[in-house]
């Protein structure tokens, strides 16, 4: 349930306008997360009282408190898209003129799904590092404060300790969960062994995950009783501000903030002016933005347990023991959020975020997918960046990695396609859509059958249509029902249907009550992205993902699971 709170100072601001006799006013609305909204409101109302104006027209500011995931859902709905893991926002939640989410990751995710979403400014106004929170007695057991942990060491502890109860906030709904999974993935490294480590870590965290950080904080021990400490939450990635606020209430067992190496993407509170805002409001937003660069605002942030964007802190900051004097500046932590795209630091961009969310979705959410693999003759082409393995060999590896990632909550089917696979039919069923809980060995064995057909062409249109019909025919509620098709070519099938027939049939099959997601992954440089986009646009959900380098197919596959629209990859 979303809670929207309008700060009390806003009414006072409106009253001041009347008292000052303004004949007109610019009424600016701003929504921010609960930890930063009061500080913004304090500075905004002071600005209003001092006569804030744009070209002689007075300015009033209304500051509302809205959870970042709730507002992200509202913005997505306004652009007629959805973000993985988020439902629709309540109708009471309206998109403001200015939005200050807790992380630029929300802006990146929205931009990747809705190209029309182009907010301006986007620069951070505050910062809070992502830390590993532990009850003090537990932290002392792992060597705090003398020993500094890394994310790699945390991974080892998660695998070897029988008493460390570690949890996380869902990365689809919480920026600290997303940042920590990015850090865990980087600590695990690359390769098949690393993939297995990441899957195990995500699976373990998912078993006890909370929807949001506040739920995590409520699971820490509430008494000094050793039994309570042993049965409560032992560790969770949260923000530094969460630890400061938690300890301010003088709990029986305080929390310790562990600053793990390397520093993950912090919460950076970007100041995003919405694209629809008119010129006068843009000027007013710029005026308010200038106020938020003041020493007054820095001190207000410090009193609220937050840092300035440069990582330093103002007066009243209750610095956790072991906290750095200054954390890394927030301005360069996330690429792609600025007006000009920016430069992603540490590989953090929309694609990286989608891959993390895709891994989480595959492991935690129930789904049904019919995987359809191209076995035309061109799949025998060798891939220089993959040690000269063929496209088919690379595809088999990607399929095996994807299957290993899916939890037993999923049901998966496998089809192969080329031309004349069964008579004139261009596709062949290998395994019907079956629960992984009982059919995993059969599905694993089926991957070995992804073998190119000599001189086989690409019967794309018939294959897409028949796969779509099958998923709709066997559609199940409460799950994501999908077709994921891998191809390295464009339709070449004289015996098959034409594009017009395919599009009209896909549109006819559209059913809002039984949505089917169509995802096409294009492999190599011989696919026609225009053709694939035309096909997918005839369906209500899905996307096209192009990887010019087939060796990157595994990461593109995970990204496709984590996104609701498509993207071209390198």
TrEMBL record:
Residues 368-561 form the VWFA domain. Residues 317-338 are annotated as: Disordered. Transmembrane segments: none annotated. SMART domains: VWA. Pfam families: SBP_bac_11 (PF13531), VWA (PF00092). This is Substrate-binding and VWA domain-containing protein.
């Amino acid at each position: 349930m979303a809670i929207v709170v309008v700060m009390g100072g806003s009414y006072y601001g409106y009253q001041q306008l009347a008292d000052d006799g303004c004949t007109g006013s610019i009424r600016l609305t701003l929504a921010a997360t609960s930890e930063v909204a009061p500080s913004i409101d304090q500075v905004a109302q002071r600005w209003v009282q001092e006569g804030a104006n744009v070209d002689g027209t007075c300015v009033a500011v209304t500051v509302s408190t809205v959870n970042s995931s709730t507002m992200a859902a509202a913005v997505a709905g306004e652009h007629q898209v959805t973000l993985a893991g988020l439902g629709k926002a309540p109708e009471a939640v309206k998109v403001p003129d200015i939005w200050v989410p807790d992380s630029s990751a929300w802006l990146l995710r929205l931009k990747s799904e809705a190209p029309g979403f182009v907010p301006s400014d986007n620069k951070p106004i505050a910062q809070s590092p992502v830390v590993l929170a532990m009850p003090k007695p537990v932290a002392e057991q792992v060597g705090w404060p003398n020993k500094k942990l890394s994310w790699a060491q945390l991974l080892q502890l998660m695998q070897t300790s029988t008493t460390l109860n570690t949890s996380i906030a869902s990365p689809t709904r919480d920026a600290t969960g997303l940042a920590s999974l990015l850090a865990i993935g980087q600590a695990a490294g690359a390769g098949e062994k690393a993939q297995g480590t990441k899957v195990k870590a995500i699976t373990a965290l998912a078993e006890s995950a909370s929807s949001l950080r506040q739920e995590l904080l409520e699971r820490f021990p509430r008494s000094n009783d050793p039994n309570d400490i042993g049965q409560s939450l032992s560790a969770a990635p949260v923000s530094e501000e969460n630890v400061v606020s938690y300890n301010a209430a003088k709990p029986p067992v305080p929390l310790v903030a562990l600053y793990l190496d390397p520093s993950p993407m912090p919460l950076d509170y970007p100041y995003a002016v919405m694209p629809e805002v008119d010129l006068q409001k843009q000027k007013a937003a710029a005026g308010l933005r200038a106020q938020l660069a003041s020493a007054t605002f820095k001190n207000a942030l410090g009193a609220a347990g937050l840092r300035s964007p440069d990582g330093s802190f103002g007066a009243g900051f209750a610095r956790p023991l072991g906290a750095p004097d200054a954390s890394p500046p927030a301005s360069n932590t996330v690429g792609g959020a600025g007006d000009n795209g920016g430069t992603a630091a540490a590989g953090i961009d929309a694609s990286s975020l989608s891959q993390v969310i895709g891994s989480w979705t595959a492991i935690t959410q129930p789904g049904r997918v019919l995987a359809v693999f191209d076995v035309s003759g061109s799949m025998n082409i060798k891939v220089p960046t993959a040690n000269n393995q063929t496209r088919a060999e690379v595809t088999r590896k990607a399929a095996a990695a994807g299957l290993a990632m899916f939890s037993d909550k999923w049901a998966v089917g496998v089809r192969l396609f080329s031309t004349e696979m069964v008579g004139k039919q261009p596709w062949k069923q290998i395994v019907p859509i079956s629960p992984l809980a009982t059919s995993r060995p059969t599905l694993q064995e089926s991957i070995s059958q992804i073998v190119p057909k000599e001189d086989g062409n690409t019967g794309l249109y018939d294959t897409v249509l028949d796969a779509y019909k099958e998923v709709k025919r066997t559609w199940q509620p409460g799950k994501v029902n999908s077709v994921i098709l891998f191809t390295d070519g464009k339709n070449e099938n004289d015996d098959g249907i034409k594009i017009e027939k395919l599009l009209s049939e896909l549109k006819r099959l559209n059913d809002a009550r039984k949505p089917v997601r169509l995802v096409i992954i294009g492999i190599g440089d011989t696919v026609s992205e225009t053709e694939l986009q035309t096909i997918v646009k005839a369906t209500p959900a899905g996307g096209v993902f192009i990887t010019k380098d087939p060796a990157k197919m595994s990461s593109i596959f995970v990204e496709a699971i984590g996104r609701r629209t498509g993207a071209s990859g390198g």
